[in-house]
Design a protein that fits this description.
The protein contains 11 helices and 13 strands. The protein is of the alpha+beta class and 350 residues long. The chain has 2 domains: 176 residues, Aminopeptidase (3-Layer(aba) Sandwich); 129 residues, Aminopeptidase (3-Layer(aba) Sandwich). Helix 2 runs antiparallel to helix 8. The protein is globular. Keywords: Acyltransferase, Transferase. GO terms for molecular function: acyltransferase activity.
Length: 350
């Protein structure tokens, strides 16, 4: 049974969206999200589409170039492989395709709600993400959450705060407060979106926007969550210092919106480290835990080993950053060459 493979670029929104039709996927796989990410990173970003009989497998990826070697990486968040059915042997098919395209290796952040062992191949590691079941609506989430969450919700309402849904006001707030908020939080560089990329993300049809205001109407916090019919992802928040106390209310307002759309779950993400305060705060919602699978794939072992040797690291190095050769002493100067050097995964599909 023959299979076909193709790549769709971010300059083809209609084709990208058509390829995702009928394939359960996360917002992170959508054209809107990947287009915004490409504007943020400058990296060429593609949607792989493989088809065999009635089965379609999709996977978004961005292209990086290091010392002349191409590697592929999940653009942002959790997407990875998604399909509308099983494809036994796909993992080997994918590896052969990537190798034929000139990719040395790839890092795939596999969404827990999608994918399948036959698509993924070997898993390099797992971490925990937390998911809220939205099928019982806001009342169902509150009934399941701890009593402190219900108490916080009642207090917030009694104090006269209100939600803000005006997209223009919310867009302006997130554009102006995104960077100052992350600066105050001491966030890493990867958390920042440039102005053009953030504008593109905020304009996405699947981007849910919600804010909270003080009794006098002053907007003090806002959140952005991305959704598809199959689930939602918490993505960006920004708040003035006095708006930090609105975090739980923002969460509940988003839950109410998503449940009203029939979205079945919300991915809260995980902790920075296992069992840290971030994870503990999410556990107060009593979510279900699911394993996020990290796929560290080597398509060209000889080239990979040679790059590791030049970088002075072991090719067997699996902890920390992947590819291992990015961790070498001289890696930083050439880790991200210009996007023009990677205008396609290897020039064209062979």
């Amino acid at each position: 049974m023959s299979a076909t493979d193709r790549l769709i670029g971010t300059d083809e929104p209609a084709a990208w969206r058509a390829a995702l039709e009928g394939v359960p996927h996360s917002f992170y796989a959508s054209w809107d999200c990947c287009h915004a990410v490409a504007r943020n990173t400058g990296r060429p970003t593609w949607l792989y589409v493989g088809e065999r009989a009635s089965v379609r497998v999709v996977c978004p990826f961005s292209v990086r170039v290091h010392a002349g070697a191409v590697d592929w990486v999940t653009p942002t968040g959790f997407s990875g492989f998604a399909s509308n059915g099983p494809w036994p042997g796909f993992a080997s098919h994918w590896a052969a395709f990537a190798r034929a395209q000139g990719a040395v290796c790839g890092y795939i952040a596999q969404h827990p709600a999608f994918g399948h062992p036959s698509l993924e191949g070997a898993v390099a590691g797992e971490e925990t993400l937390y998911f809220l079941d939205l099928q019982g609506g806001l009342e169902g989430v509150l009934a399941h959450a701890g009593t402190d969450r219900r108490r916080d919700w009642r207090r917030w309402q009694e104090q006269g705060h209100r939600f803000v849904t005006d997209r223009t006001a919310l867009t302006d707030f997130l554009q102006s407060q995104h960077r100052p908020f992350l600066d105050r939080m001491g966030a890493g560089r990867a958390a920042y979106w440039n102005e053009a990329a953030l504008a593109a993300l905020l304009a996405a049809p699947g981007a849910g926007l919600l804010g909270t205001a003080e009794p006098d109407g002053r907007l003090v916090a806002a959140t952005l969550y991305g959704w598809t019919p199959w689930g939602a992802e918490g993505m960006i928040q920004a708040a003035l210092p006095e708006g930090r106390a609105h975090t739980a209310a923002l969460m509940l307002g988003g839950i109410q919106d998503l449940a009203g759309r029939g979205v079945p779950w919300l991915n809260l993400g995980g902790g920075v480290r296992p069992g840290d305060n971030v994870a503990a705060a999410k556990m107060r919602w009593r979510p279900r835990a699911q394993a996020f699978r990290r796929l560290k794939q080597v398509y060209d072992p000889e080239r990979y080993a040679a790059l590791c040797a030049v970088a002075g690291v072991s090719a067997a190095f699996t902890e920390g950053y992947f590819p291992a050769y990015y961790a070498g002493p001289a890696a930083g100067a050439v880790a991200n060459q210009s996007a023009s050097q990677a205008s396609s995964p290897a020039g064209s599909i062979r």
